[in-house]
Design brief:
Blueprint lengths: L2 H10 L3 H11 L6 H20 L4 H18 L3 H9 L3 H9 L8 H10 L3 E2 L2 E2 L2 H12 L4 E5 L6 H11 L5 E5 L4 H13 L5 E2 L11 E5 L1 H11 L5 E4 L10 H16 L4 E6 L17 E4 L8 E5 L4 E6 L4 E7 L3 H8 L4 E4 L3 H12 L7 H13 L6 H4 L4 E4 L5 H13 L5 E4 L13 E4 L7 H8 L5 H4 L12 E5 L12 H5 L29 H14 L5 H11 L9 H16 L2 H5 L3 H9 L10 H4 L4 H14 L8 H10 L2
Parallel strand pairs: 3-8, 3-9, 4-6, 4-7, 5-6, 7-8, 10-17, 13-15, 13-16, 14-15, 16-17
Antiparallel strand pairs: 1-2, 10-11, 11-12
Helix pairs in contact: 3-4, 4-5, 5-6, 11-12, 21-22, 25-27
Length: 656
């Protein structure tokens, strides 16, 4: 929302009649016939204002919101049908006609219904924007493209269609941000593509001339480093992650840059719901990225805030107002009253996730045969003390990054399959494209969530395929989002109002923190703060060149696998590793008997403890931590040689 629109809507909300009606509409209160006419007339005025200047998108969004709220309050679908048909929101138009929601259907409506079939893509109807941007992307000959669209707007289907059109013997990489998405993406591709080999780990590569690799950036880098090959096409899923300053973002940009060196004709498609300017993705000023963007989001959430005084307010983002709803005895009463069929609770800390699960499950008893059976499966195949054994009997799951991947994938599958699994509690693992059926979201912690992350999180509720697949589901266009203030799960004197107000606008600036990107601004940093970004930038230039000696080769290797910056004094580290390797060569039989994690400890940690600046890596100096990860490696079946030990660590620890 641009500043001029904010000022305009704030001024309009000072008009007594509009102010009164917008409050009543927000709270789903009854309107008089005069007020109904007034608010629908206001919606028409906002639509005309948008048509006169289409850069002011807040006006059409407000008009759409007013009509949505009116429609579901009074079951009068005529206004919603009109705006949907005239502005290309064809899935809504089609749903209204197919479910006989109009009081009268005339010949013109039947003609519209017939023409809507032109926007059918497999088993669903697309919006006008969806079809237009999809066709441009699929027919484009540009080397680099971006597809920017709200959550659940068909980014996965873009990949499938592109692969079906591409019949050449090419090596294709689909780069996903987390290991949780590997299996999900693999299953999607396998269900649509049968004539190409699909691999999900670099160890699966078998000198294939043509393949589809569903990889994290770590696995993709290992593949091209170890096998001297390159990708012809790269799909970068959740591409906004490249803006971050994390080492994984550096690895992602490194993958793109290195593959470009190996294959100057590489094609890249960036996919994201959260990029404002695709030029910010550039690693070089020589890049040209053709952008396809879908601006309009047909979901408009109802946003509630439960405050520490047990009062609940409802937020209207267009006029930036909180309206009092009710007062409750406590949080649990409010939560229990507002749960739906499938409920997602967001909490950042794994420890607090487990604590909240115990608290919420105490008052719930919905055990049935299917849930008891699932509990027994977990007990028999994992352990009777595994956290989920008792909770699943009550319809609860919780998931966080420390849950082993195989277990996590199984639980995600069961949450989709079993109706009585009603509650899932998770943290940021939910943000990266995992497709759960979620009816409502409860947010109990907003730490580190800014406008983009909040928008992405809220977008997980009521995915479009869930809205249009059956009868009586159109009201899912207005998902319920509940922010729950809590001294325990958020912070003392918790106040989420300011975070909620970040949702007023759907226009966010890209925050470029990755120094390898062309748009990173070194001049904004103090001289002292420039040191680390400049060092990273220098490293990127270094690894493109051929190493001149063993020292440079080792340095290059450590940079490529993301270990180099774990140490404060890298020169000292490389010299130490050389000495360790020399000792290993004199006692190779003893070395072979060591566990994988003990090998990593001896090679990269022992004797370097005071030189390690990365806490998560340094804690492997503790035997208990090494034992835990050794168990994880054994369970996952990962095997590697001594020269890939550092890669192994990244793939099983930092490769989330």
């Amino acid at each position: 929302m641009e500043q001029v629109e904010k000022i305009s809507l704030t001024a309009i909300n000072k008009m007594p009649l509009f102010k009164n009606i917008i409050e009543k509409l927000t709270l789903d209160a009854d309107l008089t016939d005069e007020e109904k006419t007034y608010i629908l007339s206001s919606a028409i005025i906002f639509l005309r204002q948008y048509e006169s200047n289409k850069t002011h998108t807040s006006y059409i969004e407000l008009a759409y919101y007013l009509i949505l709220k009116y429609t579901f309050k009074y079951n009068d679908f005529e206004p919603l049908y009109d705006i949907s048909t005239n502005f290309g929101l064809y899935p809504i138009s089609n749903y209204i006609i197919e479910n006989n929601l109009l009081e009268y259907i005339n010949v013109n409506d039947m003609v519209i219904k017939f023409n809507l079939e032109n926007f059918r893509n497999n088993d669903y109807i697309e919006t006008y924007e969806q079809k237009k941007q999809r066709n441009i992307l699929l027919s484009s000959k540009e080397d680099e493209q971006s597809y920017i669209a709200p959550t659940s707007y068909g980014k996965s289907s873009i990949i499938v269609e592109h692969l079906k059109l591409n019949k050449a013997n090419e090596k294709i990489g689909i780069i996903v941000p987390t290991k949780s998405l590997l299996a999900q993406t693999y299953k999607l591709l396998r269900s649509h593509i049968s004539d190409k080999r699909i691999i999900i780990h670099d160890e699966m590569y078998d000198n294939d001339k043509s393949f589809i690799a569903v990889f994290t950036q770590e696995r993709a880098l290992r593949l091209i480093n170890k096998n001297d090959i390159y990708f012809d096409i790269l799909f970068i899923d959740e591409a906004h992650n490249i803006f971050d300053k994390s080492h994984r973002s550096i690895l992602l940009s490194r993958l793109i840059k290195k593959n470009k060196v190996l294959n100057p004709k590489q094609k890249i498609i960036y996919l994201s719901p959260l990029i404002m300017n695709s030029d910010n993705l550039k690693i070089s000023n020589q890049q040209e990225i053709q952008e396809q963007r879908i601006n309009f989001n047909i979901k408009e959430p109802d946003i509630y805030e439960y405050r520490l005084n047990d009062e609940v307010y409802k937020y209207n983002r267009f006029v930036n107002e909180f309206y009092f709803v009710n007062k409750y005895k406590n949080q649990l009463e409010y939560i229990n009253e507002n749960t739906q069929k499938k409920n997602f609770f967001y909490i950042r800390s794994p420890k607090k996730i487990e604590d909240f699960s115990k608290t919420l499950s105490n008052g719930i008893d919905i055990e049935n045969d299917k849930l008891i059976e699932l509990s027994k499966i977990l007990e028999e195949n994992i352990h009777k003390d595994f956290y989920c054994v008792d909770f699943v009997k009550k319809g609860f799951l919780y998931i966080h990054g420390k849950v082993p991947d195989l277990i996590k994938e199984y639980l995600e599958y069961k949450f989709k399959e079993l109706t009585d699994l009603k509650y899932i509690i998770a943290n940021t693992v939910i943000l990266e494209g995992i497709n759960f059926p979620i009816d409502t979201i409860f947010i109990l912690n907003t730490h580190s969530l800014q406008a983009k992350e909040l928008t992405n999180l809220i977008g997980r509720a009521n995915r479009l395929n869930e809205i249009f697949k059956s009868e009586n589901t159109l009201n899912k266009l207005v998902p319920k989002i509940h922010f729950i203030n809590s001294n325990k799960y958020n912070r003392k004197k918790s106040n989420m109002s300011k975070k909620i107000e970040l949702l007023r606008s759907r226009i966010f600036k890209d925050k470029i923190q990755n120094p390898t990107l062309e748009s990173f601004d070194f001049d904004k940093l103090d001289t002292q703060d420039q040191l680390k970004p400049l060092k990273i930038k220098h490293e990127e230039d270094f690894i493109i060149k051929e190493p001149q000696n063993n020292f440079d080769a080792t340095k290059k290797y450590l940079i490529e696998v993301g270990i180099y910056n774990i140490y404060e004094n890298s020169k000292l580290t490389i010299e130490h590793i050389f000495n360790v390797i020399e000792k290993i060569n004199h006692s190779s039989e003893k070395w072979k008997e060591l566990t994988m994690m003990d090998k990593i400890y001896i090679l990269f940690i022992k004797g370097l403890e005071n030189n390690i600046i990365e806490f998560e890596f340094k804690r492997l100096s503790n035997p208990e931590a090494r034992n835990y990860y050794e168990m994880h490696i054994s369970n996952s079946g990962e095997v590697t040689e001594i020269h890939t030990l550092s890669n192994l660590f990244l793939s099983n620890h930092f490769d989330l």
